[in-house]
What does this fold into?
Amino acid sequence: MTLQPLSAKNTRFKSGWILLLIITGLMALMHLGLIFWEDEPVLFIGYAAFNLYALLVIAIPFRRGERWAWLASWILPVGTALPAASDPNIAPYYYTLAALLVLGLLVTMRDFINKAK
It folds into this structure.
C-alpha cells in the first residue's frame, strides 16, 4: 500500500494547504521577531512555539492526508483568535488571520472526509 499525498489529487486541497502553510509560517516569523522587539518575550516564545509546531503538522502529516492532522489543526484558528479578544488593537489582524485559517481548513475538508469513507 502506497501513501499518496492528498495534494497530488486536486488543486482545491493544494490551495487550502498552501494558504495554511503560508499563514502559519508568517505568524511563526512574526512571533519569533516579537520575542526581540517586545517587553514580554516569554509570551511570544510560547506563541512562536505554538506556530512552529502547527507549521510542522501542516507541512508533513496534513499534506499526507492524515485525518488526525486535519482535526488537530482546528486549534490553530482558535489559538489565533483568542489573543484578539483581550487586545482591541490587534483584533482586526488576528481575526482576519483566524478567518483565513478556517477558510483553508474548510477548503481541504472534503478530501479528509472522503478519505475516511
In short: The radius of gyration is 15 Å. DSSP finds five helices and no strands in the chain. Residues 10-116 form one domain. The chain has one domain: 10-116.
